Amino acid sequence: MTSDDPGKARPTILVAAIGNPDRGDDGVGPLVAQTLSGRLPPGARLIVRAGDLMSLIEDWAGVDALICVDAAASRGMPGRVYRIDLAEEALPPELSFTSSHAFGLAEAIELARVLELAPKQIIVYAIEGACFDTGAPFTPEVLSAAAEVADRIAEEVCHILNAVGAHA
Amino acid sequence: MGTKSILVDYLARVEGEGALDLQISDGRVTSAQLKIFEPPRFFEAFLRGRGYAEVADIVARICGICPIAYQMGAVHAIENVFGAKVDGQLRALRRLIYCGEWIESHGLHVVMLHAPDFLGFPDGIAMARDHGAMVKNGLAIKKAGNEIMQLLGGREIHPVSVKAGGFHRVPTRAELNALAEKLKHARDLAVGLARWVALFPFPDFEQDYEFVALRHPDEYPFNEGRLVSSRGLDIDIADYDNEFEERHVAHSTALHSVLKRRGAYLVGPLARYALNFDLLPASVQALARDTGLGPVCKNPFRSIVVRAIEIVFAFEEALRIISEYERPSESSVKLEPRAGVGFGCTEAPRGICWHRYELEADGTIKTARIVPPTSQNQPSIEADLKDVATSILDQPDDVIRHRCEQSIRNYDPCISCSTHFLKLSINRS
């Protein structure tokens, strides 16, 4: 059976890009979304969120797999890409996601898991930023990482869809 | 006895960034300062030179939690200059979108930000492990508010459909009917929420506040009314500057507002409720009484119950508006720009949000002033902190620190708005 089999519901994938484009490297999530626009296959939806991340729990209702991309706080290596499959490992506490709001991505995922509302598969791409000042330009290393992560997410979406098709 | 200092560097579960500095000397709280260090955002300056039609979209960016408050204050002030009146179904739709904002904002605060304080949890996630059903209900309530915002405003955060004169688009009857079914379910959840929070343990603490709120002859206030207080103030919103004044204080980037003649005052749910209890529907008044509230509540810790009651009211009001809805033929009234000064004042979830705009003949903004609720409440927050800390001064610092943080969250402060963030330090000597 393939994912095109009408007897089997096609899996849904949500790609959530998170960040504020007006706060320097915090805008890397929306930048990845811009690069991914029009490149995702049917079955995958792309959203950009900058505000209350608790509303993400509403966005991923009924979604089979979630891929998030967000900026991570500076640890001295701007542009470094972290890929975390939450089925295999927890979000490392030392990897603090940057959010100027009360509920960040980690909290939204944790709350959804406690309430058993989280998608089965969650993959998080975090790109380490350097400067989060208002109106600041992207750090060059972060810009390069955004293009790389967009390619990896496009591949990952296809892989998830094909894997479901192969296993179904 | 020496000097002691208790510090909270960043207050959690508030919108924005700030700190609290408590100074204790010889067994007495000598100073309680809410330090707001979020940088000024200069929205009033951004507005100068922009066209009147741009204002609703610019001010919506002041806050992700209460954008409607800013949009409504602005559009009413602009219409005030132009001598335009938006009434009928367009006026009703403005109340409806405000219901969405109250539900969304109060829902988030009551369940995720404030309830953990009373139940001994560090945050909403930890609380969800023991109270998952109620947290799910809270999320469903918030989602219902978001759906009102989405339908009327075009999106949940920073809505784009509000404009001077009305809306860019008005909903169809069928769209509102579909929404109403979701709202009825969420209203029932909200009644359960009000009964749940009413059972929390509340500190025995009351303050003699001067409550300030809008008062409309016929309705619990959102967008219109006179400014009234529990000590006899009763003025047109245009006379705000005669009675109130904003002051710079060294420890805060947000201005402090005071009544010129009497000092600190309180805006928000407690004030609105006390000054407008008689205008709540009988069913909501009865629910309030069931939860142990009288017509006036002076205990700021019980503001969580008042917020929950206001959520139920907002659902009832939304359903009433939808039941009487007839789609207007035009989504907005025609405006004819002219020079002048106009005022708007609406009831944001946290209290009155006052606007004054001076426009050129072509509708260009000459000057703008916006007084958000959190800056108006700052002197009362500091007075509460001093009295709360004084009442438990013999307790360990961590107990004082927690109670002070809780006191600040009583106000659901939107610090980002007031600067256009919290850290608590206690100094004992």
How is the topology of this model organized?
The complex is a heterodimer of chains A (168) and B (429).
Chain A: E1 13-18, H1 28-36, E2 44-49, H2 56-59, E3 65-72, E4 81-85, H3 105-114, E5 121-128, H4 140-167
Parallel strand pairs in A: 1-2, 1-3, 3-5
Antiparallel strand pairs in A: 4-5
Helix pairs in contact in A: 1-4
Chain B: E1 3-8, E2 18-25, E3 28-36, H1 43-47, H2 55-59, H3 67-82, H4 88-119, H5 124-130, H6 132-153, E4 162-163, E5 166-167, H7 173-197, E6 212-215, E7 226-229, E8 234-235, H8 240-243, E9 244-249, E10 252-259, H9 269-276, H10 282-290, H11 303-323, E11 340-348, E12 351-359, E13 365-371, H12 373-391, H13 397-409, H14 415-418, E14 424-428
Parallel strand pairs in B: 2-14
Antiparallel strand pairs in B: 1-2, 1-14, 2-3, 4-5, 6-7, 7-8, 9-10, 11-12, 12-13
Number of strands of chain B: 14
Biggest sheet overview of chain A: 5 strands, mixed
Tell me the series of helices and strands of chain B, N- to C-terminal: EEEHHHHHHEEHEEEHEEHHHEEEHHHE
Instruction: Count interface residues per chain for the largest interface.
Output: A-B, 17 and 25 residues
Whole-Å distance between the termini of chain B? Answer: 6 Å
Instruction: Report Rg of chain B.
Output: 21 Å
**How many individual helices of chain A?**
4
Q: Could you spell the SSE succession of chain A in H and E letters?
A: EHEHEEHEH
Question: How many domain units of chain B?
Answer: 1
SSE-based structural type of chain A: alpha/beta
Molecular shape of chain B: globular
Instruction: Detail the poorly predicted runs of chain A.
Output: 1-7
Helix content of chain A: 25-40%
**Neighbour order of strands in the largest sheet of chain A:** 2-1-3-5-4
Largest sheet, strands/sense/barrel of chain B: 4 strands, mixed
Task: Bin the strand percentage of chain B.
Answer: 15-25%
- Estimate nothing, just give the exact number of structural domains of chain A: 1
Percent range for β-strand residues of chain A: 15-25%
Amount of helix of chain B: 40-55%
CATH superfamily of chain A: HybD-like
